[in-house]
Write a structure and sequence with these properties.
There is one protein chain. It contains seven helices and 13 strands. It is of the alpha/beta class. The protein starts with a strand and ends with a helix.
Amino acid sequence: MRAFLLAAGLGTRLRPLTYNIPKCLVSIKGLPLLGIWLKRLTEANIGPFLINTHYLPEQVEAFIKASPYCEQVTLINEIELKGTAGSLIANLDFFQGEEGLIIHADNYCLADFTAFQRAHINRPAECLMTMMTFRTNNPSSCGIVKLDERGIVSDFYEKVDQPPGNLANGAIYILTPELLKKLGTDYHESKNFSTEIISRFIGQIYSYETSEIFIDIGNEDNYHQANR
């Protein structure tokens, strides 16, 4: 399965750590975050990979060139940020008409990706997407989902005060060819995946909850938590 790792963020909330290094290359227990992603995904027989860059792209390019994954990775530099949905829609050809894995690569995630793929294969027939979810201790900072009795997303609350639960969207998705096609035809002007795409497919999104470590490396506290 081909995977698109979204890694173009500026990492402003991690400053001063990210003044001189892109967020996707910050070190977790001595390893660059992007390297952890590529290693774990490769071990789950996922690849090849597309990675978008924007901030300090030459550092990402040098890292990939020196890595054991260089022949599996295509880098695309966004001079102007397109947004999560915009980047995906601009690169739909990468998936070659097949299913695709979409990952926000600023998370430290130790989920079982083989089990995630298996859950997608066994999803209810009407579901066009499988979303990875996790339990969060800070639900107001996350997109929170509500599920029906079959595990299908029945409602979605994107970073609201007093959300109704703590089951959070992990911003990791497997998208069917049908959904990818719809993005290119019906939603081609969308920019943000969470706010412009997810709400349009309520009732067609299956949920896979991981019980493994899942941390959004969005601020210094979370960064230090991941390293602990």
